[in-house]
Each structure stands twice: as C-alpha cells, then as structure tokens.
Write a structure and sequence with these properties.
Structural class: mainly beta
Number of strands: 38
Shape: elongated
Largest sheet: 6 strands, antiparallel
Strand order of the largest sheet: 2-3-25-24-23-22
Radius of gyration: 24 Å
Length: 436
C-alpha cells in the first residue's frame, strides 16, 4: 500500500555511507541504501506504481514515464502559478494538485485525462488522504500571510470544505494514519532568519476530535515529538506504524529524514540526510517489508532532493540494506569452515545463531526488536540450538567466525546474525545461510 503526502544535525560523517546523485550528495545511514535517482524537473509530483509520476509545474499537468520523459499532457493553465502539491489516490484513478498563487485545487481524472477545479483554499501547501475514502485534509493559510494555518477537510467528490483546526505559524506538512488520526508539524511563527532550531513540534488530533465538529487549535492536539527544527514533508507508514518527516533548517546543517514511532513519539533514527533541500516524501511497499535500517527488501522511500546551486531536482530512492550472512567450508568430509557477516552495524556487534536446517519454514519468523520495529529469524526462537556471545563488528559492520565442521554435517545447519548497535541495542538480523 502506498503512503503519500511526500539524528542529530551534527552527526559525524564517519558513521554514514556516502552516495552521490546528479544533484549533489545524499548521505544514507548504515542499513540503508540509495538505489536510484530520477530527474523530476521543476515540478510538484506524485509517483505512480509503474515508477512514473504525475507532475504539475505550475502551468502544465502531465504524466511522465519511469525514465522521466513526458508521455501525456492532461491540461495547461493560461498563465503560470506556483504549484504546491500533487497526490494520487491508491487506485490511481485520480490525482489532485494544488497551487498557492490563487489557491485553486484541481482534480485530475487519470483515465479520462481531464482536469477540473475542485476547490479554492488560499495558500494551500499540502494534502493528505483521510482514512475515510473520498475525504482529504489540506494545510492552508486561509487568512493569508501572518494569520496562521488552517486544517481543512475536503470532500473529493464535490469540493465541499470544512474548517477543522487553526494553528499559529505558516502552513506545515500533514499526514493521516489508518485510524483517521491526523499528524501535523508546526512551523516557526516569527520573522527571524534562520528560524531557531528545535522549537517545532510533531502533533496529532484524533479521529474523534476531527469528527466532533468543534473548532480545534494547537492546544487540543497531542504533542508527539518536540525539538523539531522544521519540516517540509510528513508521512505515516501503516506497515511499521511509524512516521517519516523531513527535519529541515535554514542554518546550513544537514536536512534529515527522521523515523518516529507513532505510538510514543520516540525518534527511532535517521534514514538519510543531505546538505541540499529535501521534500515530498513518498513510500512504496511491494510486500510486508518495513522501511527501516537492516530490514529485508521490498520497501522504497522516495525523497525529492533539490540542489539550488546546481539547479537540479531528483527523486531519490532509499531502501533497507540488510546485513548478509555467507558460509564457506568443506563438503561432507568435514574440516575448517567460516561464517561471514557483512554490512552490519559499524562498530556494533553480532551474535551468531545456529539451528538445524530441518527447522526452516517457508518464511522467517517475526519478533520485536524492542523499538516497535520487527526482527526476522530463520526459525522459531525455541528452535535456536546455540548462539555466540556478541562478537565485535568492524568499522564496515563485518565479522568472520571460524569453526571446524564435523564430517557428514554439510547442509544440516543454518546460521543467522542478531545485530546490536554500539550501545548494545538490538538493530535487526542478517539474512540466513545454510552450511553447504
């Protein structure tokens, strides 16, 4: 299922893996890989399941293929305006685009190829679908500059709007979870530049509050996370029950993509950062995989990386990078053998678990890592035969374990590493490997 909208700023670069795109540098945390970058041009856009995207550059509504080439123009406005967002419904039947010059919100019928004006909300900034089909929330400054931000519910069938909440400051990003709770990042309400660091908050209103009809304010919201610098984009992931947000600032520090637990607001970590501007987070899951460090493949987080110096805009793809276990050794005669773990936690440790391969099933068994994210094991925990004490991983997150394999044991054993970070907290598991 698609979730859409789109740790420290002083973290040492020695703890990061460096990847390069055409628009400068993107730093990904250990356990995360950058798997691609696509030029998207000067567009607000939203990604389709085929890897293409629907774009609005402020005048032209268009569809692009997975290589970025324009393949269809839906409509063209008579004069350019400032585009604010594009979102696509899960069925990919309609896209919705906003512009902040006049405040229009457009409905794009992706089947018929037509564009109609759905509503008008001054200075609209972001839109998120409600858990109730056919409804969405829009963040907009209805009173204009200096008069705060409004949260508006929008009926996608007829364009009817309902004002639900008002908060101080300019418009901020928002996202809705699968229970109908609405999350919002506050924006600095002042004139100083750069804005002060660590003064913004991630808050939410419950579905019941939003449906009550009572006018809501920031005082009615529950504060989930404090010390946010600012944010351009926010999204809720129903697979991991976490939120991703861009932690952005104007001080020249790195712009981060933070992962926050929706249940308690704890910052689980950063999956990436850049010294360019990042926005427009999107998440795609092709299976039950979770987007987090050291998880299996199947989840992709897209972020729009803008390099104003090079005048380039890329949709950068980030995916989990799972540690790998491999085995080398003798055949049935027995002899020296080695289990190798690569791409684990740099400077952390790993416990090598051993079980009989006859206990392997069609899928890995899930257990909790203690931070709300899942870990995966090759066998049920009761079937783990032995495990080593935590062994140190080197600066690359690698280790080797040598042992002597008895004759006749080829193919009878399976190995897997349980990963710990430098503080001893469980971080995930490696892939598993059979001894043949």
């Amino acid at each position: 299922m698609r979730t859409q909208s789109l740790l420290s700023c002083l973290a040492s670069a020695s703890t990061l893996l460096l990847a390069t795109t055409a628009s400068g540098q993107v730093l990904v945390e250990p356990g995360i890989a950058q798997t691609g970058a696509l030029h998207v041009g000067d567009n607000a856009y939203a990604t389709l399941s085929d890897g293409g995207f629907v774009a609005f550059d402020g005048q032209v509504f268009a569809r692009h293929d997975a290589n970025g080439a324009q393949v269809q123009v839906y409509d063209t406005l008579p004069a350019p305006v400032f585009s604010s967002f594009v979102v696509i419904d899960d069925a990919e039947l309609f896209a919705y685009a906003g512009e902040s010059s006049n405040g229009d919100i457009f409905s794009i019928d992706l089947t018929a190829g037509s564009v109609t004006t759905l509503a008008n909300l001054s200075f609209n900034f972001a839109m998120a679908f409600d858990a109730t089909p056919g409804l969405a929330y829009v963040s907009a400054s209805l009173g204009g500059f200096g008069f705060g931000n409004d949260i508006v519910r929008l009926d996608l069938a007829n364009g009817v709007t309902s004002n639900l909440a008002h908060v101080a400051g300019p418009s901020g990003p928002l996202s809705c979870d699968d229970a109908g709770n609405l999350y919002f990042v506050t924006v600095y309400d002042g004139v100083n530049w750069p804005p002060p660091l660590e003064e913004q908050e991630l808050v939410f209103w419950t579905d019941a509050q939003l449906d009550s009809g009572a006018p809501l304010t920031e005082a009615d919201a529950t504060v989930l996370t404090t010390d946010i610098d600012g944010s351009s984009s926010l999204l809720f992931d129903d697979h991991s029950q976490t939120l991703f947000l861009t932690n952005t600032n104007g001080d020249g520090f790195a712009q981060e993509i933070l992962q926050v637990a929706a249940s308690h607001g704890g910052v689980l970590g950063s999956v990436g950062e850049a010294y360019t501007w990042i926005q427009n987070l999107e998440l795609w899951n092709t299976n039950d995989a979770v987007m987090a460090p050291y998880q299996p493949a199947g989840s992709t987080l897209f972020v729009n990386n803008i390099d104003f110096g090079d005048l380039t805009r890329d949709r950068v793809a980030l995916e989990p990078l799972r540690a790998q276990a491999t085995w080398t050794g003798p055949g049935s005669a027995g002899g020296p053998a080695t289990v190798t773990v690569t791409a684990g936690v740099p400077g952390g440790s790993a416990s090598i678990m051993l079980a009989r391969s006859s206990f392997l099933s069609g899928s890995e068994h899930e257990f909790g890592l203690g931070n709300g994210l899942p870990g995966l094991l090759m066998v049920d925990t009761d079937d783990i035969w032995r495990r080593t004490q935590p062994l140190p991983l080197d600066a690359n997150g690698d280790l080797t374990l040598d042992y002597t394999q008895p004759a006749g044991w080829s193919g009878a054993l399976v190995f897997q590493a349980l990963l710990y970070d430098e503080n001893g907290s469980t971080s995930g598991t490696s892939s598993f490997v059979v001894n043949n």
